[in-house]
Write a structure and sequence with these properties.
about 650 residues; alpha+beta; six-stranded mixed sheet
Length: about 650
């Protein structure tokens, strides 16, 4: 019997040890899980192929393809039929042999039967892109103008080997839609052309051909190409476009050429074309058709605006103080749009602020044009901006669109798959610059109303999908996952790292990936590498979880030399917060907690407040991180 008792004691002791070991292993596993996040299989293959590296930098074998586009457009308003011809020299820099090309035909979004995110009105519908001829290296190939798709695979007559090029000659036409928003007819003789030409889709190192359809909500993904664009328009029409105008003397009368040249070095606004000038109809060269020629290299897209009754303002601003390089800021608009009379000044301020503060990279292009349209949509060197009666709101929207210069145009992110990689940053920058324009309090009131409240006040499940969820897979929750939530993550990280290290790390990421195609994991790993801190725990929480924002002040206990304060993270996101402590004698103390407080204790934290005073009440303030339930943010000490 005594042996049996001894055996039972041994078994109990062994089980206790096993339980302890198991518990320790589970804790260790949980800690490891907290430090890591999901890597998709295509990205793991990119690491294996050494096109990307785990430190967030492009790998030694990184590559991307390139196109040289020579495009000619003929436009004759009020006729909305656009005639186009282009030659593309496409270089295959990949290690793969390409047997086909995927063509992006964005204007097919207007075809009846095209897949769309939302319903289309009748005036939105057209016959889409009609390709009249398609020639590859001198050989005509069959094309399909019937399908209502924004992707079309074109089989190559012979495979395109690595490090070889192919030449495409394409003619096409399409009808500009009415009421389209991002592009289309603004009025009978003012047109905005975006995504107007057949283009070769991105073929990249981790996903191959980009075949995501354009649904008119998710945005775009393009290679960095070189462009020459010729726009043929009737006399009396003005043209604004991405790039640098190559022949102002050939299309403008001498007086207007002089005004344009003067604006290039002027801090003051130059009125290049006024209402009086428009009435006299002597601005452009008197030809039946004038050909405006624009060039832009190493850029992801082109856009064009034309009108015969828009006024034209311009000035410039120093955007790189070390080299004294200036950039032109221009505006084309209806004279009765009061907010657009401030567009050049707003643009000057935005270009210099973004260049010298955050992101702190000098504006990379020679100019920026603000064109009055409907969409509030960004393009390289162009903004299609709508009229707003509220000047502060108009400036905020313009700031947002101009800030897109850096994300996605300078960085080449994939907007259609990971829209938060550009919209999140633009939403961050608009708040930062807004504080210097209308004050922090006014900016935060406007910003939280627009960017945070629609999400935090909506408890539906789609709103809490992880930010990393591809934009192409989202419907409900898309806007908040692209704008407000990632912007809040950036502000939380800024609070965690401090302003200087945050800016240093962001610029390191941008230096790594300027002119390339980063994915979210490149951003995560770059920020960890450049900050010198393992931030996986932070990114795992903000981008891979179903969290939201809700802190709960659980209890305040009197201890020997003060008080112990316990806060529960009910919502789950790692946010910064302030704790306001009010004493019975009327004195107050505010303790700031950065997101670092959640690293070791993600669900509940306890911290001490040393004081010899009697505490009356404690309150949590989350600032722009709006709390879903503020009823438990105050604790009255009894």
């Amino acid at each position: 019997m005594k042996y049996l008792t001894a055996d039972l004691k041994f078994i109990k002791k062994s089980l206790s040890l096993l339980a302890l070991i198991t518990a320790l292993l589970l804790i260790e596993h949980a800690q490891l899980q907290a430090q890591c996040f999901y890597y998709p299989r295509d990205l793991k293959q990119a690491f294996k192929n050494k096109t990307r590296s785990i430190d967030g930098k492009p790998g030694k074998n990184y590559w991307q393809n390139h196109g040289s586009y020579n495009i000619t457009l003929t436009i004759s308003p009020p006729n909305r039929n656009i005639q186009g011809a282009e030659q593309i020299i496409y270089s295959n820099n990949s290690p793969d042999t390409l047997k086909e090309l995927n063509m992006k035909l964005i204007m097919n979004i207007h075809k009846p039967g095209a897949a769309r995110f939302a319903n289309a009105q009748a005036n939105y519908l057209t016959q889409g892109v009609q390709m009249d001829s398609f020639v590859i290296d001198g050989q005509a190939v069959a094309i399909n103008n019937q399908d209502a798709t924004t992707n079309q695979a074109i089989t190559l007559p012979k495979p395109l080997l690595p490090h070889q090029s192919v030449k495409l000659d394409i003619t096409w036409h399409y009808e500009l839609a009415l009421g389209a928003g991002r592009e289309g007819a603004i009025d009978s003789t003012s047109f905005y052309l975006g995504y107007f030409y057949p283009r070769i889709a991105v073929y990249d190192d981790y996903n191959g051909w980009d075949k995501l359809p354009f649904l008119d909500v998710q945005e775009f993904y393009n290679d960095f190409n070189d462009y020459t664009l010729q726009v043929k328009v009737p006399s009396d029409f003005l043209v604004w476009a991405t790039g640098t105008l190559q022949n102002p003397q050939e299309v403008l009368q001498p007086e207007y050429t002089k005004r344009l040249e003067r604006s290039m070095n002027s801090d003051s606004v130059v009125h290049i074309v006024t209402p009086l000038d428009l009435s006299q109809k002597n601005i452009t060269t008197k030809n039946k058709l004038n050909t405006w020629i624009w060039k832009a290299d190493d850029i992801s897209d082109m856009a064009v605006g034309i009108s015969d009754h828009y006024v034209w303002d311009a000035a410039s601003v120093v955007i790189d103080h070390s080299s004294r390089r200036r950039a032109s800021i221009q505006a084309a608009y209806l004279d009765n749009a009061a907010d657009f009379h401030s567009a050049v000044k707003f643009g000057q301020y935005a270009l210099t602020w973004f260049s010298n503060n955050l992101p702190g990279v000098p504006y990379p292009y020679p100019k920026m044009t603000v064109f009055q349209g409907y969409a509030d949509m960004e393009y390289p060197m162009m903004v299609n901006s709508s009229h707003k009666d509220d000047l502060s709101f108009a400036q905020l929207l313009l700031d947002h669109e101009i800030s897109h210069t850096w994300f996605p145009f300078y960085m080449g992110t994939n907007e259609s798959r990971y829209g938060f990689m550009d919209e999140g940053w633009a939403t961050t920058f608009e708040r930062l610059i807004g504080a210097t324009e209308i004050g922090q309090e006014n900016t935060d009131a406007l910003w939280t109303e627009l960017r945070v409240k629609p999400w935090i006040s909506d408890p539906s499940a789609p709103e809490d999908l992880p930010i990393i969820t591809p934009s192409s897979e989202l419907r409900d929750g898309l806007s908040n996952n692209e704008y407000g939530k990632p912007a809040l993550s950036h502000f939380a990280l800024k609070d965690l790292l401090g302003d200087d290290l945050f800016k240093k790390s962001l610029k390191g990421y941008m230096n790594n990936w300027h002119g390339k195609h980063p994915v979210p994991w490149d951003y995560f790993n770059s920020m960890s590498d450049k900050s010198g801190r393992n931030l996986n725990w932070f990114f795992n929480n903000w981008f891979f979880s179903n969290s939201y924002i809700d802190l709960s002040l659980q209890k305040v206990n009197k201890i020997k030399d003060g008080y112990s304060i316990t806060v529960k993270n009910t919502g789950g996101f790692y946010i910064p917060f302030d704790v306001k402590i009010t004493c019975q004698d009327g004195t107050c103390k505010i303790i700031h907690q950065t997101p670092a407080i959640w690293e070791q204790n993600p669900q509940i934290v306890c911290f001490n407040f040393k004081t010899d005073r009697v505490v009356k009440a404690v309150e949590i303030n989350t600032g722009i991180f709006l709390d879903a339930n503020v009823s438990d943010n105050v604790f009255v000490v009894k």
